[in-house]
Design brief:
heterodimer, A: 124 residues, mainly alpha, 5 helices, 81% helix, 0% strand, B: 138 residues
Chain lengths: 124, 138
């Protein structure tokens, strides 16, 4: 099998987060989760390596939180680290690209911290 | 008349070229990028060693040793900022100092309550390596 090893593990992690978020039944909350999942997928497929890396790290840390390998304090600390690093990147983008860059980096982190994390914690 | 204008034009261009060469050679003499990169690598190694020493699950928190290491780190960063000859790089060092301050505050809070997990240590080191790579333009 050519696709054994690492890629397989990444795929199962992604499924783990998606399946957790897909369990939400409340309509308004489910809409937020869908918005987040769409943004995350968009960021993971972006041409910018930094945007892809940020999305990948965010997803991995949400899974670590769900698996209780880190707690909410740790998660918030890592989000602040990511924001600190990304602000320089967003400010350095051309004016016409800034809004999109911000949406796929800072905004996605904000949604994760304020909307997704409480749902994941409630599921633990 | 025209000949004077041409002479002045040539003289002005020669002067501008000479000034540009002088400024460029001064810059090369006073700023050594490899030295500056080495300094940043040294700060990275210090910060990674700091995390290795204190982000250890189950290890009893030694406040005195922790404070001593933080003070050593503060001194290292302040010295690096003061000694950086390439002024454009000082804000980058200030950002790296900000990361060290944030790491120290989080680690103190977690280690003093015995709430360090293996994942916390490895994710912290991942973030440190990332911010230092960006600081070095990688």
């Amino acid at each position: 099998m050519p696709s054994a090893g690492k890629p397989k593990r990444k795929k199962s992690r992604k499924s783990e987060l998606d399946s957790a978020l897909n369990q939400v039944t409340d309509e308004s909350v489910a809409a937020s989760m869908k918005e987040f999942q769409d943004l995350l997928a968009q960021a993971k497929g972006d041409t910018s390596e930094l945007i892809r890396q940020n999305a990948q790290e965010l997803e991995e840390r949400l899974v670590l939180l769900k698996e209780r390998k880190i707690d909410k304090e740790d998660f918030d600390f890592f989000v602040e680290n990511q924001k600190r690093d990304l602000r320089v990147f967003v400010d350095g983008q051309p004016a016409q690209s800034q809004e999109r860059a911000e949406k796929l980096t800072l905004q996605i982190l904000e949604i994760a911290a304020t909307k997704v994390v409480p749902i994941l914690i409630a599921m633990i | 008349m025209n000949s004077n204008i041409a002479k002045n034009f040539i003289a002005r261009n020669v002067f501008l070229c000479a000034t540009a060469i002088a400024i460029t050679s001064c810059g090369t003499a006073t700023f050594s990028k490899p030295g500056s990169d080495t300094q940043i690598e040294s700060l990275r190694n210090f910060e990674l060693a700091f995390i290795d020493a204190f982000a250890v699950p189950g290890k009893r928190f030694n406040a005195a040793a922790f404070d001593a290491k933080v003070n050593e780190g503060n001194a290292k960063f302040q010295q690096a900022i003061a000694n950086e000859k390439f002024t454009a790089r000082r804000p980058v060092l200030v950002d790296l100092k900000g990361q060290f301050d944030a790491d120290a505050a989080h680690l103190r809070s977690k280690a003093s309550r015995g709430k360090v997990s293996p994942a916390l240590a490895s994710e912290m080191k991942k973030d440190v390596n990332k911010i230092y790579d960006h600081a070095l333009g990688r």
